[in-house]
Amino acid sequence: MVNIKKSILSSLTKKFVMAITGFVLASFLLVHMLGNLQALEGGPHAINAYAHFLQTLPWEILWGFRLSLLLCFVLHFLTAYLLVVENSAARPQRYAIKKSLASTLAGRTMIYTGTIIIAFAVLHILHYTVLNLNPEFKELDWVATSGLYESKTLHDVYAMLILGFSNDWVAIAYIASMIVIGFHLSHGVSSMFQSIGFRNEHWRYRLNAIAVIYCIVIALGFSLNPLAVLVSKYTDLQILPQREVASQFEKLQNAGKKPIFINYDFLCEKSQCKAAASKINTKK
């Protein structure tokens, strides 16, 4: 009896840890998505300033946040794998007929979608944060022409995003990963409410609907940038200036320019961009 109680308490503790860490990770996804969508605001100003603000936070805040997020990530998936092992050990023999009517496909595949998410997270950090997969992106710079960072040289995250998704396989893999993350969230968010005691029979369907809506928002929101790049690359609808940025980057890189400054004069009227062009030329 004592061992049974310990086992139940252990499982409940793990599920509670998964719920709390899952809430933190799901909340981070929403904030991160909103930050990324600034690339669609018509130019490099918004997303470059936003990225620079994050990169120049006091190291205590920046690394405190990063380490807290990493801890939540590790705890979330570690407890998930431990629960899977416990459940498998509790059922050493499979049922002759497996009944899964009460569970959803998302719920039955959480361990698999979670594994894909881990692999995606590692590759995404290597690609867009550490810049190991495309080290040439480190050379991208941009001179702010207005706002808080006026006349300062910032990393050109706008161009980096466009160039990264200009690789068809990267864009497609990113969109596919977002679908997997959305599928994972559709069950995870709903289970989170149950684990912390918010979900009952009265609220079950409403909270499930909220979970589905949230996962669609996250998956679609993150997919907009790679979709915009692909549409701009293969059609005349230039949502993002993929062709111009890719062309300039290739020419400047072949010419051995370091750092590389993309000229964004084509995004606005000549009278508005004259000052920007002069500042960029001065930096060169």
- Give the CA-CA distance, first to last residue: 75 Å
Q: Output the CATH topology.
A: 3 helical TM bundles of succinate and fumarate reductases
pLDDT < 50 stretches: 95-102
The second-level CATH architecture is Up-down Bundle
CATH class: Mainly Alpha
Rg: 23 Å
Specify the structural class: mainly alpha
> What's the total helix number?
10
Question: Which SSEs are present, and which pair or pack?
Answer:
Elements: H1 2-36, H2 45-55, H3 59-90, H4 105-108, H5 110-129, E1 140-143, E2 153-155, H6 157-165, H7 168-195, H8 204-234, H9 242-254, E3 260-261, H10 270-283
Parallel strand pairs: 1-3
Antiparallel strand pairs: 1-2
Helix pairs in contact: 1-3, 1-7, 1-8, 5-7, 7-8
Can you tell me about this structure?
The chain has 284 residues and is mainly alpha-helical. The chain has one domain (2-87, 104-283): Up-down Bundle (3 helical TM bundles of succinate and fumarate reductases), CATH 1.20.1300. 69% of the residues lie in helices and 3% in strands. It has a three-stranded mixed sheet with strand order 2-1-3. Helix 1 (2-36) packs across helix 7 and helix 5 packs across helix 7. It starts with a helix and ends with a helix. The relative contact order is 0.12.
